[in-house]
User: What shape does this take?
Amino acid sequence: MANTAELTHAELDNIIDPPALVQGKDDLASITDTVCNVAENKPPRAWYIAFLISLGVLGMLGASIVYLVITGVGVWGNNQPVAWGWPIVNFVFWVGIGHAGTLISAVLYLFRQGWRTGINRFAEAMTIFAVICAGMFPAIHVGRIWVIYWVFPIPNQMALWPNFRSPLLWDVFAVSTYFSVSLLFWYMGMVPDLASLRDRAKKKMSRLLYGIFALGWTGANRQWHRYERVYLLLAALATPLVLSVHSVVSFDFATSQLPGWHTTILPPYFVAGAIFSGFAMVVTLAVPARALFGLRNLITMRHLELMNKVILATGLMVGYAYAMEFFISWYSGNKYEGFAFVNRAFGSYAWAYWIMVSCNVLVPQIFWFKRFRRSIPVMFVISIFVNIGMWFERFVIVVTSLNRDFLPSSWHYFSPTYVDFATLIGSFGLFLTLFLLFCRFLPQVAIAEVKLQTPHAHAHHGDDH
Amino acid sequence: MSNNSSAELHGIIAEYHTVEEILAAAETVREAGYTRWDCHTPMPVHGLDRAMGVRETRLPWVVLIAGLTGGGLGVLMQWWMNAIDYNYRISGKPDWSLPANIPVAFETTVLFAAFAAFFAMWIANGLPRWFNPLSRNARFARATDDRFFVAIQASDPMFDQDATAAMLSSSGAHAVETVEEPDETSRPPAVFRGAVWSLVSLAMLPLFLVAMARYNTSDKPRVHLVPDMDFAKRIKAQAVSDLFADGRGTRPPVAGTFALEDMEAVGADPAYYTGKLGDSFVTDFPLEVTPELMQRGQERFGIYCAVCHGDDGRGKGMVAQRAAVLSPATWVAPTDLHTQPVVDLASGQLFDSISNGVRNMPGYSSQISYQDRWAIVLYTRALQRSQAASAQDIPEGVNLR
Assistant: This one.
């Protein structure tokens, strides 16, 4: 701060002593009540409506996958030279969405950012469901899904092993490791909260089910001791893992010899984009959920504003990457590289490129203003814009680099079919169905971790420290 | 304090309301010398480890060893699969190069370490546990909500029901209660156990079937779950096929097809189609000679002939030059089209050579149409003329550089 005299008292207070992470009644029992009531009470009517719609859209996904499997990948718009098409666009989109969950839960944990506790459970659930959506796309894209086990190193009837030099195989390992580790991390964090639900359960069935998944947790300190140590270790393992996953996804492109893909900036650029899109998705989900389930005191305006700041920062990073790609393609003096980028911005898909730039670089700049960072409608709309922009980013990378390849005679304008649309929209149905089930039956906020952020968790909290 | 001595005693619990209280109580219990006891709190309470004298866990070492094992196995797996058991020979790359194997080895490192951390933590914590005697106490349910408990087990060597209870009461506890050992309710209900065992058995079934198929032989055709192209709709001669509207598997020849023997019967010109009339080769062109035909011939010559015979027809094409280097002993050089015997050949014979081949040269009848073969013959004639030209042949007005 250059000049503190310009700051108002309120602003100064905010910097020295930011608002508490738990607003309203912050005693331990109220926190348990707020979170557990969501799972114990009947959900609001909006939940039923949303669930029915999601279930319908999920049905559409199922139908389009069945149609795809019994007919073949020809039902999609994929064709030479754009053989990757929407399935890979959707794969990268969804796997990127997932990364904010790990970032919030693991990276911010390592950096001791207390504000993560309000949203980490939420974001981790988002990770799990987004990775499920992501993993589905390469699986159905292989065409003959019944031999998908060929990608795993298990003995098969042809005495063949997978080719470990292929980045596509690295993807198999990276994404499946990411999914398993995220699932462990998510579940482990949830066990103490499931125990809370178990101990409050009135009905025998919910007591039994929560009891099974709570594994007999009683909050013994000798158990907390090992639990916390392992939680820290998992966070430390998940942090390089999340970076490796999106780097490996970018290797699918970067290690190929195609202008527009063959660049070393791709791994960091992909990771920044993943965090960007993931945080936007957390905001998109958190804004309605905190209103719907009465979690405003746990997912506070401070949480949302901090996430908007991350969106602004990572948005600038992807903007930098877009600019740097152009600079490098000019600086390299490689005319094919140059053509690929001029074609991106001014070729047949210029419309997609400029949607991407507007949504990802221009629109988030509004978050420089505190008023908009703290406005619920503004942040909701912007988070949707970022989601759209990041989908288009992957579309631009995949399609514009392929559609005008080395041989002008095979240039081809890629157009999706209605099955492409049904599959993409349907994947949102899968995601939202899982997410709504999570909101309904599981603790949406990490109860024990939020309690740790209150003054009640620390000795001598009356002292001025 | 309730005192029900009919059942065996499990231990004593004491309830506290704040972090300060539980920390103070923990120090009291530790200083009294108890060893089989614990504090139960709704969230981790920092400082409690020191107050209780809990030693640092050795789990990080387990995780480190598991991670190293995962990384090592990852490298070993890739080395065995790609460098030893099944080599991928791609673009002359080495069978084994570590950099390409780092991403997968990294992932297996993280995978093993994370699984080891997760499972070792639960095992060390003695969980999952179907039943905990402490859960029989109604107060204790708030251990996962907003209350703090000290639980001392009856099996502790220091344990004395009255003395221990008194000590806990004096440590500031809001309530002190005894907890009895569980009876037969500590076992999962039979239905639950039955369900788990049936699920486990059912899960083994596919593996069992695979193993059975793997180690047995059968004279029955294999099961085609997905037919792939095992049953392609191929056409058998003289058989019915539903691939065509007329239902005939054997297709009639396309319209205008005739047998060579019937050439004259259908009114076709043998000179045009074979380059021969009777037994002798024709010398004239059986089609109209035009500049377009000449240009067509030049283009086709460039495509089909020049790779061996050379653009100038002297037999120094790229293929010929390369083959002469690679296998000088066996290579029969292509004919120089400007030698006198070739110049003297009848046009019909050149046509015949293109159609049916000569010596090393294969026939091109399947690749070049009749008219294009004549066009090539025409261009060859022009080429021969141009290579044997003198200054007088240059037309007026053409400027020689």
User: Anything to note?
Assistant: The beta strands of chain B are 9-16, 37-40, 148-153, 175-180, 276-277, 280-281, 357-358, 361-362. Residues 270-389 of chain B form a domain with the Cytochrome Bc1 Complex; Chain D, domain 2 fold (CATH 1.10.760.10). Chain B has two domains: 1-184, 270-389. DSSP finds twelve helices and eight strands in chain B.
